[in-house]
Model the fold of this input.
Amino acid sequence: MQKVIIRAIGSLKSPFQELFEEFRERLTFSLHVDVITVKKKLPKDYAKRQEGEAILRSLPAGSVLVALDEHGENFSSKRFAEWIIAWMEQGSPLVFAIGGADGLDAAVLDRAQKKIAFGCMTWPHQLVRIMLIEQLYRAQQIANNHPYHRTE
Done:
């Protein structure tokens, strides 16, 4: 079973958590989610650096790091699915990093092998986590030729 890891800054509250768990339960591959918290009263740049260091320290050896960033590459759902399928054939742990309100630290962006955007708009980190897990589920369904993905 392939391992997908989501490293996210901040926590999800209901109803976001409920929706996230609904898609998580539908996945047939292993998904591990770690929430990284940093004290709220830290200066913005220092907190962002601390968050970045925590993400980088937590990366499994040999993992592929994907940063979700507004300046990243835009994928169609089908192309994202193709990329996920190709990655699954490699077998390396795949780690998605989702920053907090101020985004990801430059060190995380520099280390990432891929940067992905969900369009050119800026999204709250809670919604990005929901959109990511839905796209992971959609990729799984595309790979299995399931009719969930009906755009053609």
About this structure: The two ends are 29 Å apart (CA to CA). The CA atoms of residues 56 and 108 lie 7 Å apart. The mean pLDDT is 86. Residues 3-143 form a domain with the Alpha/beta knot fold (CATH 3.40.1280.10).
